[in-house]
Amino acid sequence: MVERVSIKYLVVILLLAAAAVAQSYTTNFPLTENPISEGGKWINGGVVGLDWTNVQTTPGFAFGTMPGTEGSPGYADSWALLSGTWGQDQTAQATINAPSTNDACNQEIELVLRGNLSAHVATGYEITVKAADDSNSYLIIVRWNGPYGDFTYLVNNLVGPAYGVKTGDVFEATIVGNVITAYINKVQKAQVTDYWYATGHPGMGFYLGHTNYEFCAGTNSGYGFSKYTAVAMSTPPFVQGNSGPGTI
Question: What is the pTM of this model?
Answer without folding.
Answer: 0.87
